[in-house]
């Protein structure tokens, strides 16, 4: 068999054998086997060239995928599968990339966690879920998370939440809102509770009075259509309590109303 044509096609080369059999190879393949027009090939060598070309093409594609940002092994494997490379080829590419330190799931986990500590707002639980979705082993994630102190981060996030909600919610609702928001971001309850307890909250009685009067007026308008007297006060009290006002604050507001 003889190579009758080699033609560059964007990032690949089209190789033609005996004027009819055509296939694509990478530049690495051309260089490795010194392919040129009129070169004679045996059946065994042709098969070897095609195998190497597939491996080289898959590796180049993986490196292109990695050039944009750091990836996990699972991400690279799924990317190559999407491009219909065989499992055997993918496994070899993954092995070579790991050996060359292009792929390292532990470093991937460490980088994501550190980035979150520096610029993010997520707790350990959500970070672990995200890394698990990337195919990182649970034991690797746990080891990396155990080396990080989330205390300063949860304090920073709680400060932002306080700034957002203070003077907009009653004291009880403010505590529930901040703690719930922190746990929703992946911090555990004790971390969230400690962060809230450490906040310097301005208990402005005038603001709280304005808030409860506004909510009480809304509740009265709502329930006075169906209730009156004691039943009306009970429904208004229950409504305000659900919104985070203390019973003392509610009773004081009701007395002022009377």
UniProtKB/TrEMBL annotation:
Keyword Nuclease: no
Any matching Pfam family: RecX_HTH1
Domain RecX first three-helical: from-to ranges: 58-97
RecX second three-helical domain mapped to chain residues: 104-143
Domain RecX third three-helical: from-to ranges: 211-254
Biological process according to GO: regulation of DNA repair
UniProt entry keywords in alphabetical sequence: Cytoplasm
Cellular component GO terms, alphabetical: cytoplasm
Family (UniProt): Belongs to the RecX family.
Functional description taken from the UniProt entry: Modulates RecA activity.
Name listed for the protein in its UniProt record: Regulatory protein RecX
Species of provenance: Streptococcus pantholopis
The organism's taxonomic lineage, starting at the top: Bacteria, Bacillati, Bacillota, Bacilli, Lactobacillales
